[in-house]
Design a protein that fits this description.
By secondary structure, the protein is mostly helical. The chain has 2 domains: 2-65, no CATH class; 82-207. The protein is built from 8 helices and 5 strands. The protein has a 3-stranded antiparallel β-sheet. Strand 2 and strand 3 form a beta hairpin. Helix 5 (88-100) packs antiparallel against helix 7, helix 6 (103-122) runs antiparallel to helix 7 (128-158) and helix 7 runs antiparallel to helix 8 (165-185). The longest helix has 31 residues, at 128-158. It is elongated and about 65 Å long.
Length: 208
């Protein structure tokens, strides 16, 4: 296994920290970085280690970097709704960001649309009024998707500091209020909403 937060390789069966990894997430990091990615240094038993401590992941309590309080919450509760929110629902939101709200893709789509509209205008395929109207629509869509990207990414970052069920519900409620505010600003009839731990299992993780 490979932790994408602190770049630690470890055996998922024993918790032993490893020097190398064939994990797909690590290969993706190598590709994006176009070169080696620094990994957690493994020192012999008993020898002090700079930064994160040596030994296994279980021994250190977490795999390095800032403590992720979600792990404490997952271990301290048997609430199925909380586990669902912190595990499967998080993956749904990450996939949604990757597919619809990746900032690089959002920007690229906007720039391509603006270029295509300019070409169509210069070729006489639309008049100036239609061109400006479509440019405005494209820019509003770009702004909307960029704002949604910020909200969802802040939500995922803030999850690391959640240590109780009450804090989790509070974070989701605040995030849903932000999503509702964006829906109103960009004139969406139904805002997106993240499922609460107390919601029925039949409610989608992310829905309108």
């Amino acid at each position: 296994m490979h932790c994408t937060h602190c770049n630690t390789h470890f055996d998922w069966r024993t918790g032993e920290v490893l020097k190398i990894s064939t994990n797909g997430h690590y290969r993706d990091l190598l590709i994006r970085a176009a070169g080696p990615v620094a990994v957690r240094e493994v020192r012999p038993p008993g020898e002090a280690s700079a930064g994160a401590g040596g030994g296994s992941v279980e021994e250190s309590g977490h795999c390095g970097g800032d403590e992720d309080r979600r792990l404490v919450l997952l271990e301290s509760t048997e609430d199925a709704g909380v586990h669902r929110t912190l595990l499967s629902d998080v993956e749904v939101i990450r996939f949604t960001i990757h597919k619809f709200y990746n900032q690089n893709l959002v920007t690229a789509r906007y720039e391509n649309e603006v270029l295509n509209l300019r070409i169509r205008f210069l070729l006489g395929e639309m008049d100036e009024v239609a061109w400006k109207r479509k440019l405005y629509t494209a820019h509003r869509t770009f702004e909307m998707n960029s704002h949604f990207a910020v909200v969802f990414n802040l939500y995922l970052m803030a999850l690391r500091g959640v240590g109780t069920s009450e804090e989790l519900v509070g974070l989701i409620t605040t995030t849903n209020e932000s999503l509702a505010s964006l829906a109103e600003e960009f004139q969406q009839t139904t805002p997106m909403r993240i499922r609460l731990p107390t919601d029925s299992v039949d409610v989608p993780a992310l829905f309108r």
